[in-house]
Every structure is written in C-alpha cells, then in structure tokens.
Design brief:
The strands form 7 sheets. Strands 15-14-16-17-26-25-24-21-22 form a 9-stranded mixed β-sheet. It contains 21 helices and 29 strands. 54% of the residues are buried. A hairpin with a 7-residue loop joins strand 25 and strand 26. The two termini are 17 Å apart. The chain is α/β, with parallel strands linked by helices.
Length: 775
C-alpha cells in the first residue's frame, strides 16, 4: 500500500541512513500495473524474476508505478530482473522447488554482499549508499530482447559486469531511463513511449526521469532542467517543411523537488508545436539536469557552481547528467483516426475503497488496484486500437481542456470519479453539436451489495465504508440523461452470444433506458443479490433478460454517436484469479463498432464522419432500431446511497475535492502522495561546445563512473544511436560467485531485503522465503 504514509516515510529514513533495501516486485503477473510496495519506491531496488529457462517469468509483477496517476507521469518500478526459480535448500535439510520474486530478491542481495566483501575498505566507501548500489546494478544489467523496461527495468543482473564497474566507481548523479527513444528503434525497450508518433494538437506525452545521486543523501537542483534541441530531420526532400528543432518539439519540466534518500524524480512533458502540423521526421536533443549537494563527499571542481549546467555536463562533472531524447513526429492525422482515452475520472486502490469490478473475485481480491489505464488494465485494447490504425491519446485533465473537433471519440471506460457539472455540460455539447463520438463502458452499482463489502481496518480499528460500485454509474446517468440513456441499479453476470461469439458479462450493469431509433442488444443473465455476495444464499438468484449493449446515432448531421456497454471487465486485462474461470473478452465488439462508425481514416481532418441514421453494423444485423423508447426499471440514483456511503464516496474523490475544496475528511487531498505537477516550459538552449581539454576530461570522468559497462555513452555522445539489447545471460554465474549460499549471514548484515506481506495485497501464491534475508 504505497499510501501507507508512515511505512513509506520509514523506508525513506532507512535509505537516507545508507541502508540499501531490496524488495521483490511481486508475483501478480502477467498483469501490468501489478507492482508491490516498497519495490516501486525509487529508494528501493525493485527485483523481478526469471523462470527456470531464463525467460521473464509469467508470475513476476510488471508495469509502471501508480503513485503519480492521473496527473503525473508514472515511473519504471522494476529495476532489475534475475533468477527466481530453482531448487534450493529446504529448512531442516534436503531440497525444495523455490520460485517467486521473493526468491529472486536475495540473489541480488547475495551478489552485492559478495562483491562488496571482495573490496578493500577504502574501495567500498563510495558504494555505501542505496543510490550507488542501484546505479551499479542498473548500469551493469543486460537488457533482454523483446521486453519493455516496464517489464525488466534495466535488464538482467550481471555480476561479472558489476564487478568490473564497481572497481572504478565514482559517486555521481544518473537518470533512469538514461536515454529516451520515442521512435520505432526504441521499441520494445521504451514501450509505450515508442508505440505511436507525436503530432501537432495532440495531447502532451508525459514521462518520468528517476534521479539517483550517490554523492549525498539530500540534494537540490542547481538550476532548472534545460532542453537542448539539436536536429529536426524530415523524412525526405519535399515530404515535410524544414523547421528548427526548437519549433517542432516543445519540452516542459516539473519543478525538481529536493532529492531525499539519495533519489528523486523530474517529470518531462513533450508535445509538438502548432507550426509543425505538416512536419514528418525525427527530432533529437538533450535534457540537462544538474544537482547541488550540501554534503557532497567529493569536493566539486573549482568554479563548478558558476560554469552552468551545460558546461559542467560537457566536462563530465559528476553532479550533472545528460539524457538524450529522440522523438518521431508525423503530420497531424485526420480526426477520424484520433481517439481520446479518459484517465482523469479513473481511480483505484489505494487512493480509496474501490472494489473489484468482478464480484466473483471479491473474496480473493477485494480491491480494484491495477488501474484503468491503457498501459495497465487496458493494455490489450490499447494495442488493438493502434493495430487498427487509430491514434490513442491520454486525457489527464477534465473534459473542458480538450478541443472536441480534433477527435473522433472519447473513451470513457469504467470511470470511478465524480464528474464536474461544467465538464458534463461541455461534453454533452461536444456529442450533440460537434460530432464527437462517445464510448461508455459502465460497471456494477448496487447500494446493498456495496454494504456487504464494508470491513474493519485492523490497523486503525475503523470501519471502511464502500462508497463506490464498480463504476460511478450515477454520474454516467447524469451525463447521458439528455440522450435518453441510463443504466439501472442491479448486478448481472453470465455470458451471451453476439456476432457469433461468446461474450462475458462479469458483474456488470444493465441499461434501463434507451431512446427510440437506437440499436439495443439484450441477453439473459443472472442477477446477483447482496445475500449471494455474503454467501448466505444457496444460489445466484433468478435469471432475466436485460439490455447489455446499445448504439445510438444522433439524427443531427452535426452530432456524434454513443456506444453504451454495461460491463467493462470484458474489455480489460485485469488478471482473473486461478480459482475463477477464464473470461470471454469483448474488445473485438468495440473494435468492430468503431470500424463501422469511423470508416474514413484518411480524409480531411476537419470533416467529421457522419454515419447515416439507420445504418446497422454487422453485430446488429438481426436487430431492428427501437420503434419506441426502451424502459426497464428505474435508473441508478444517488438517492439509493446511505449517508455513510455518500460521505465515503466524496471523501475519496479527488474531483469532488477539486470542486468543493479540501476538508479534513477528504483523504484524497489531505494525504497527497505525489502532488499534481506544475509544468514549466523549458527555454531551448544552444549546444555547449566544450574546449578540447574539456572533452578529454569528460571521457576520463565517464570512465571513473564505470560508464564503460553501459552502452548508453556512445548514444549520449551522438544523440542518435539506438541502445543494443542482448539476450538473457546463461544460468551459469562467474565461478567465484558460487559461494553465494555461504554468505547469507553477511548479506543480512549488509543489506535489508523486504517483501511486502500485508494481507490485502498479498499475491505471493506459493513463493518461498529464504531464511531471514527476505523477511
């Protein structure tokens, strides 16, 4: 639970004291967004696992951190991967099969302990900080082919390369990733940043640079981060206008907060200038960051504070870091190819009590904690939309912030948050007057079932009240009310046939209202009761026919269309527990409907598609438009919630707090883990030309830091060359490393290895702990 503030602060205190913490990333894979705390803490070495064949294990957790969502840019949570499945010693004698990231974790600890013990005391001193050991581990790691850094971090642990690097190590600052390649050559290592190009009028793409400073536990930025635009290379003569790189790529930074516990971060946001709407090519440059440490163990060179960050970086100053940036830019695509994915209204545990979307799993996994994000729970949908020729942009602010004339549709999938009145009014106008399409996927809502999920927190001895269903169905009804669409109260589960395929409906809602002229698909499903959730009923209640999917094409030529789906679980990749049958997905349903509604992908970007009223997609080939308005029960309403449930919902809603102001009872804003970023435009700077003597000084400084073991240095010098990615090393370690089992006691004394084991997030599923190293 990364919002367990006392625990997170204690981790920072331990790291600031010079103790390196190593933690298993978790065994919740292959789902993305499944990292455990404290492995996802920048001050901790987060370890993923390889299986017995040396490949990335399916069970290892992966993906981005969720601390910063929705406003900021997530970090890379896994730092390194290593062997996590083998036969090992069994307590009491004998051997046993061991697997899990709690098995991979002590491999890192043992390697570090043994390598440190091989050094003299004077040689060991520069490495006695969490940042130094993370820099050592990550710089020496070998990236695996075919994997994103979100899956493997810096790559596979390499003891041999670590031994080479540690003997020439000098404390310095570094960034991860050490370069940002948002072009096709950057994939798959830089996925999803390299998944699609940037273009003018697109939503800015945010990313996070994690900073490590092995010179001091606490440091501050010496000057604001700067952006040096080097080249803007068009694809070919006549294919794009020749522009200055400073006009093509706009770079913004967050204010760099003081680094504590040897680590910190800086947010980077990249967008394309309006003058480059016809440009197609690649833009390259460099990001410069310089820190100033009050307790720097090595004295800075004379005059370093006055020379400026660019000069210090060129001369190899250890307090400066250069991060090459390369971006693929294309001409602005037509409106019919652009989709906007709403992130602003998505929330997940531990930001509040957000229950599992699939009630069949609540006894196994109470909370919805993977995040409703295209790079976590909706990763397959995201990839399929890109494969279909769509561009998918992420909306991290409210609906008043975007220009609807740029987009074919807004994807509003499983929203848990409150909707502001002004943004609801704006979106209603966008759909009815500006031709915007709207894809809505709801989820379950039932106040009585919500009540059965209340529990008493063992730590605080307080009751935790469930104030939210699977989605904010009440808010969706307010949004859709002018169009005659509403979702009802009730939870339905089962499966149905559509387009010749089986589709799952996993604890979803049903449509209670739909207007005449719309297309409606109905299915016979089981209704879930509060008694059945509490397991006091002998069966799953009665079955009934309900409406699960609707398509409405508004009659006005200037209006858009609406797809309404009662369940979002069939769209996401949230991993079902082994005890739950495999789900039948419905992503193809959305794909086929979008293909029908958005057939023109290469026309005039300013002319929206106008599907003819009454034209039916293949999925509704046997369905006639409604002659009269459909009605089946009352729409879900806020009146059904108790006062305690309503207070609980508002207390955990950051959008509600933005509308009404923070109060002591609002946990969403009284305990902000990562404050919403304040972006500052970087003024482009001219490249610094270093004297010849400075160039040689830079090379020697690079060697002192052990950069020779990393292939990033050549790319940093040129600003263009892609990073080499090698395959996983063999299982056989360096011969003298085979003494690892004998150094368990030394490892425990030198380093702390922590495995999160709080019950509500436990996903170990059989992993074995080794002695007291991973306690």
């Amino acid at each position: 639970d990364f919002r367990d503030v006392p625990f997170v602060r204690k981790v920072a205190q331990v790291a600031a004291a010079g103790i390196t913490i190593s933690s298993g990333a978790g065994n919740a894979g292959p789902g993305w967004g499944s990292l455990m705390n404290p492995a996802d803490d920048a001050a901790v070495v987060g370890v993923g696992g390889l299986d017995s064949s040396g490949e990335l294990a399916t069970w290892t957790s992966r993906g981005m951190t969720l601390w910063e969502l929705p406003h900021g840019a997530p970090r890379y949570g896994v730092d390194v991967i290593t062997h996590g499945e083998f036969w090992g010693a069994k307590p009491g004698g004998g051997c046993q099969h061991q697997w899990g990231t709690s098995v991979a974790c002590p491999v890192v600890v043992g390697v570090l302990a043994m390598l440190l013990s091989s050094l003299r005391v004077a040689e060991r001193a520069p490495l006695r900080s969490p940042a130094a050991l993370k820099q050592l581990v990550m710089a020496a790691a070998l990236p695996m082919e075919g994997l994103s850094a979100l899956e493997q971090g810096a790559g596979v642990l390499s003891p041999v390369r670590m031994e080479e690097a540690m003997r020439n190590f000098t404390p310095h600052i570094s960034a991860f990733p050490d370069k940002i390649d948002m072009t096709a050559s950057g994939c798959p290592l830089m996925w999803p940043l390299c998944a699609q190009p940037l273009y003018a009028s697109g939503q800015p793409v945010a990313l996070n640079l994690t900073l490590f400073n092995s010179q001091a536990a606490a440091s501050v930025v010496a000057e604001a981060p700067s952006w040096i635009a080097l080249t803007a290379m068009p694809d070919g003569e006549g294919s794009a206008p020749h522009l200055d790189a400073r006009d093509v790529l706009l770079v913004e930074f967050t204010a760099v907060r003081p680094l504590v516990a040897y680590s910190g971060f800086v947010g980077v946001r990249v967008s394309v200038g309006s003058s480059a709407s016809a440009f197609s090519g690649e833009v390259a440059g460099q990001i410069l960051i310089c820190l100033r440490s009050d307790d720097t163990p090595t004295a800075p060179s004379e005059g370093s504070e006055a020379r400026g960050c660019a000069a210090r970086a060129a001369e190899g100053d250890p307090s400066a870091v250069v991060v090459p940036l390369r971006v693929r830019v294309v001409a602005t695509p037509p409106r019919q190819s652009r989709l906007l994915f709403d992130l602003y209204h998505s929330s997940a545990y531990p930001f509040g009590f957000f229950p599992n979307d699939d009630l069949e799993q609540v006894k196994l996994e109470l909370m919805d904690w993977n995040g409703d994000h295209p790079h976590t729970a909706f990763i397959s949908l995201f990839k399929e939309l890109l494969a279909a020729g769509m561009y998918v942009e992420l909306l991290t602010s409210n609906w008043t912030s975007f220009n609807a004339s740029n987009y074919a549709a807004l994807l509003l999938l499983d929203p848990e948050e409150h909707f502001l009145p002004r943004e609801v009014a704006k979106l209603q106008r966008d759909v009815s007057q500006r031709g915007l399409g709207l894809v809505v996927a709801a989820d379950w809502f039932d106040a009585q079932i919500m009540k059965t999920l209340d529990y008493r927190d063992d730590a605080t001895r307080q009751m935790k009240v469930c104030g939210s269903g699977g989605a904010n169905v009440v808010g969706l009804n307010r949004l859709l009310q002018p169009f005659g669409i509403a979702f009802g109260t009730g939870v339905y589960e089962g499966s149905y046939r559509l387009g010749g395929k089986e589709v799952a409906h996993l604890s979803g809602a049903a449509l209670s209202s739909f207007p005449a002229g719309g297309l409606l698909h109905k299915a016979v499903l089981r209704r879930v009761s509060a008694a059945s959730i509490a397991r006091t009923a002998l069966n799953r209640q009665q079955t009934q026919q309900v409406a699960v999917l609707g398509l409405l094409k508004l009659p006005s030529s200037a209006a858009g269309w609406i797809i309404a789906l009662g369940d979002s679980s069939c769209l996401d990749d949230a991993l079902a527990h082994a005890a739950v049958p495999a789900r039948k997905e419905c992503r193809w349903v959305v794909g086929e409907l979008l293909a029908h509604l958005l057939p023109q992908r290469g026309g005039n970007a300013s002319r929206p598609a106008k599907p003819s009223v009454g034209a039916r997609p293949l999925l509704f080939a046997h369905t006639l438009p409604l002659m009269d308005s459909y009605s089946d029960g009352a729409a879900a309403s806020e009146r059904e919630l108790s006062d305690a449930q309503l207070r609980a919902f508002r207390s955990q809603s950051r959008v509600w707090s933005a509308m009404t102001g923070c109060a002591e009872t609002n946990s969403s804003c009284t305990l902000p883990l990562v404050l919403p970023p304040e972006w500052q435009r970087a003024l482009p700077r001219e490249p610094y030309v270093a004297p010849a003597t400075a160039v040689s000084s830079s090379a020697s400084a690079s060697a002192r830091r052990g950069a020779a073991v990393s292939s990033s240095s050549a790319w940093a010098e040129a600003g263009l060359a892609p990073r080499h990615r090698s395959s996983a090393p063999p299982l056989l370690l360096h011969p003298h490393l085979m003494t690892l089992p004998l150094l368990g006691v030394a490892a425990a004394l030198l380093l702390v290895c922590y495995w999160p084991s709080r019950q509500r997030r436990l996903r170990s599923r059989g992993s074995v702990q080794l002695g007291s190293v991973c306690a």
